[in-house]
Design goal:
Layout (H helix, E strand, L loop, with lengths): L2 H16 L1 H11 L6 H15 L5 H12 L8 H12 L8 H12 L2 H4 L2 H9 L1
């Protein structure tokens, strides 16, 4: 994988959790798989812009629902019930869902998520 693709994979869900607008702009930058110095500069700018925005309940919910997609067919019924409960009470100030999903990432060894900034930061919270 090319470095910018690795950087995007690492940051993808983290950006989504901070800013849907930045996520969409980066997704458009990466769309044609043609990368340039100009796109790299814009990518770095959008990462910084996302970092300046605190996650909201809406952006966290969206990002975590995407992450959940990796588990919904392999988790236990109890894990699904816990996910739904934690999703329902999720707020940026009371985020038990991130650490829960990080635990599932480790349990099921989902490589893409193991290398995800959002899951790594959630693991650090727990």
């Amino acid at each position: 994988m090319i470095k910018w693709q690795e950087d995007w994979a690492y940051n993808k869900y983290w950006v989504m959790a901070h800013s849907q607008a930045c996520y969409e702009q980066i997704r458009l930058l990466a769309k044609d798989n043609m990368w340039s110095e100009q796109k790299e500069t814009e990518f770095e700018h959008l990462l910084a812009q996302a970092a300046s925005q605190a996650p909201t309940t809406k952006t966290l919910t969206n990002a975590y629902q995407h992450v959940w997609g990796y588990f919904k067919k392999i988790c236990t019924p109890q894990e699904k019930q816990t996910y739904l409960l934690l999703l329902q009470k999720l707020t940026p100030q009371d985020d038990e869902l991130g650490p829960f999903l990080s635990g599932l990432t480790n349990k099921y060894q989902v490589t893409y998520l193991l290398n995800s900034r959002l899951m790594q930061e959630a693991q650090a919270q727990s």
